[in-house]
User: Fold Fe-S cluster assembly ATP-binding protein from Actinoplanes lutulentus.
Amino acid sequence: MSTLEIRDLQVSVKLPEGELKPILAGVDLTVKAGETHAIMGPNGSGKSTLAYSIAGHPKYEITGGSVTLDGVDVHELSVDERARAGLFLAMQYPVEVPGVSVANFLRTAKTAIDGEAPKLRTWAGELRGAMEKLQMDPAFAQRNVNEGFSGGEKKRHEIMQLELLKPKIAILDETDSGLDIDALRIVSEGVNRVRATGETGFLLITHYTRILRYIKPDFVHVFVGGKIVEEGGPELAERLEVEGYEKFLTRA
Ligand SMILES: Nc1ncnc2c1ncn2[C@@H]1O[C@H](COP(=O)(O)OP(=O)(O)O)[C@@H](O)[C@H]1O
Ligand SMILES: [Mg+2]
Assistant:
């Protein structure tokens, strides 16, 4: 069973002039396979910075602390090595990849992560099944990745990758934003199918509590000013729903 350990993580964003702007101010968090952790915080608190720095985005520089996956220092690994090690990031703003079809993209990703190409006979069915479960038109397989996709279609495509790649640790950055109520339910059901295997640990980043009605977190962490300022169980999300972030903002 896998464990992601984040210890006193400090991260700065590299500004175009070459300066460093500190964003994460010492984050401590442990995520184990089978657990779901919700990270909730207002806009600009550094949630995406946390996600990107774990995934290895070159714009973010680790200035202190560590991130390890099963004892291996993640920052020693390139971005694709991190993916092969079992880290997965569903981005807040998924990028378009012109000229690469969804079918090709997924097959290439699956091959890279498993170390061998999926069996041709079973793969087509697996892909079709994943699309059906997420209520995606089969025609999507031939479209270019995210090109002209609506916000909801992009998020379904992210969850389709999650279901096909079966990562050890999945970071979902505002997968709920921009979804209508049906899409939110469909996407949440996809996440819950992967959760049910007990083999993936989830870091669910959001600033609304509504996705947590569908995906019940085991732990809730309030994230303000680049760090965790409060932790608890699912009841903390309910408190946030009523009280908002204001109390934590003034404290930070
Ligand atoms: N490339 C960047 N250049 C300048 N500031 C940035 C950059 N990326 C992030 N920031 C700043 O870092 C802070 C945290 O951003 P972010 O991690 O996206 O927050 P969240 O996801 O919680 O809304 C914000 O104040 C944001 O403006
Ligand atoms: Mg964000």
In short: The mean pLDDT is 94. The first strand starts at residue 3 and ends at 14. The chain has eight helices and twelve strands.
